[in-house]
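User: Here's a chain of 957 residues. Predict its fold as tokens.
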Amino acid sequence: MSAEIRVDRITSRTGINTLSFTGDGFSFLTNVGFGTTSPRSRVDVEGDVRVSGVITATSFKGDGSTLTGVAATSNISTNAIVNSGFSTFSGGVSVTSGGVNASGVSTFFQVSFGSTINVRIGDTNTGCSLTSGTHNNFLGASAGRNTTTGNFNNFFGLNAGFCNTTGSNNNFFGHTAGGCNTTGSNNNFFGRFAGENNTTGSCNNFLGFYAGFANTTGCYNNFFGFRAGRNNTTGSNNNFLGNAAGCSNTTGSDNNFLGGSAGRYNTTGSFNNFFGCRAGFNNTTGGCNNFLGQCAGFCNTTGCHNNFIGQCAGCCNTTGCHNFFGGYNAGRCNTTGCFNNFFGRCAGRCNTTGNYNNFFGSQAGRYNTTGNYNNFFGVNAGFANTTGSDNNFLGGSAGRYNTTGSFNNFFGCRAGFNNTTGCYNNFFGRYAGCCNTTGCFNNFFGRCAGRCNTTGNYNNFFGSQAGRCNTTGCYNNFFGVNAGFANTTGSDNNFLGGSAGRYNTTGGFNNFFGCRAGFNNTTGGCNNFFGCLAGFCNTTGSHNNFLGLYAGRSNTTGNNNNFFGRYAGRCNTTGCHNNFLGNCAGFANTTGCHNNFFGLYAGRCNTTGKYNNFFGRYAGLANTTGGYNNFFGNAAGRCNTTGFYNNFFGLEAGHCNISGSHNNFFGRDAGLKNTSGCHNNFFGKFAGCSNTTGCHNFFGGYFAGCANTTGCFNNFFGRGAGRANTTGGANNFFGFYAGRYNTTGGYNNFFNHSAGQSNTTGCYNNFFGFFAGICNTTGCHNNFLGLRAGCSNTTGSNNIAIGRNAGTTGLTPSGLINLTTGSNCIIMGNNDHTCAVIKIAFTVTSDIRDKHVFGCVQHGKDFLKNINPIKYSFKDRETNEITDETVRYGFSAQEVMELEGDNPVITNHMTEEKLGLTNDYLLPVLVNAIKELDAENTLLKTRLEALEAHVGIATNT
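Assistant: Prediction complete.
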């Protein structure tokens, strides 16, 4: 039934409208009978009719022969009254244009037509105050007594609408109905004392004895039933339907009470909806409640924002707020508990003060008393829970026996069925965690997941029958159908995938991820298997990590292995301490130990080789028994089979090495073609890339030793250092392009940028410095030290040039001479040097056995007397600017050269730009001069002695 009843018309049993209420009053649409059930005309009265007032009609039918007190010739004035035997007049009657008046009788009747269409039936007080009011119908003594200008009112009953003055569009039916109404409009009061005290309240509908009795100014109310809304005064927008419904309501508004005694004691509570016998019976000031069902919210007094649906739902609730109880006895015992939602027969029946609970299903959370923050969904879900809090149970009998366990989530039929005090569990699926009692911090997802778990803690089982047999095992994570199915006490395991760790029993600290990963593992521990069939055959092997399809599939008892990639370590059985990463990495390894293979096919063919490290696609692909190798890079050491103690780093580094050992190749294609060469170290892109059998080489730098094939004992450091060397050995080239074009030259030492760059077959050279000996090709036994020292030398050998630009002219500063093909020269310094200091003199070898003598020196004092010693300082020959202020003594090389003639010895003319003197070569000339002077002196002495003897002068010897 709607909470609001609005009467527009009364309809007969045959469906024909009989009485219609409109804004203009009311009208009879069929025959109306008084004292008869079969009226024969519009108005059919079986009995007397007493009218006090004027009856006005267009015509009266009948001859009036039965009228008393009226002369036959004087009872009609203007219109005729026709009496058909159903109207009786007593007393004087006069007919005027305004109606029919009867006076002197106790019953009054007046019908007015024209602009004021009113009907008044009763006594003289009935509608007696009407002035301009129209379309009113007053029936009963004093009905509408004080109405003056009110329009369209229908008052039926003793004193009905007695005080109404200007109120319009009212319908009052019953003794004193709307008796106190003054200006209230649009009201409908039906029943004795219905709305009796209403004064200005409007738009009310009261139906029943005492319905809305005390209402004064309350508006928009609908009260239907004995004493419905009896005490309502100013409350508005209320709908009370039923015996004593909202009986005590005074100022409460916006309430809807439907049912016997529904909201019986509500006073000021507003926005309530009570539907059912005694629903919200004791509610006083509680607001915003919705109670539906017999005794629903019966004891509620001040509780607000509650929704109780079902017989006795929330029956005992008093001050609890924000609850929603739906179902027979749902939340029946709740008193002050708040924010609860109980749906289903006896759902949360025993809850008293528990808050923030949601119970959905027959007997869900039935025995919960003070438990908070629980969510139980399903028949018997959380049935036995008492004080357990923060639980979520979804499914038939989920968490059935949980009592004080808290922070659990059980989803599925009988999920967590036997849990009592276990906390922080999450069980999802039929029978998930069914046997768990006190186990805590478990997460079981899937049919029968963790079904046998009792006290095991911190487990996560996801998938049908995952961890089914687990009892006390802890810290396990099983994900997938039958994952960890047989596990009992094994702990700290993680199994992900269908049948992953299927037969594991007591093995602990395992991680199996993938379909049937670790399928046969029983007691093996600390394993990590990732991928379909990864570690499939492993039984007791421990501390293994297998990642990838079939990774470590055949491993049984091998320990401490790490296989990552499709088929990685596929054939490994008992091999230990291996690390294989990449598709087919270490595929054929069986018993090889301590290997590390990383990359596609890295170490694929290795069987028993050990202590190998292969990193990169195809790295160490062909290795079988070779050990102690380190190959890093795509195809690094790809062809190595039995070679050992090799280190290859870079793309295709050591690619062709087969049996070569003790090699270190770093860089793309470093040692690319090395086959059996040993003890080599190649660092840099293409370093030693052509080396085949060369041994004991050290190449560092881009293209360093690139062309070397069989050359041995070479050390090349720097980009392009020794790049063209093929068979040259025992060379040391350090620097960019140092020894760049050396091919077969050996025993050379070139240090610095481009030092010895052009050397091809020159041997035993030592070039130190930027561009030192850069142009040397076949020159041997040269030692050039300094920036550009000997940089012009090509084939000269056994030269020594020390200093910046030493042995090279035309540079700044210029060298003293320009070495090209000259040999056996020692050159120190350049033209800018101004001082040479040594504590002792140089010792020059002068063994006659080492000399081929051509004769004696011809020059003497005559030669020297033409040489003029000069005092000078060095200058710039172009600008004549003195470059060194130091004053020196010396000779002019040009002057000496002129004296020497065509075959100069003292003068050095190796370069026309820089003439020099060999001062030591002046010593023999000085000796000859002294001898010549001594001979002359001896001759003079002899002559002097003879002269003295001749003159008698004694000579003092």
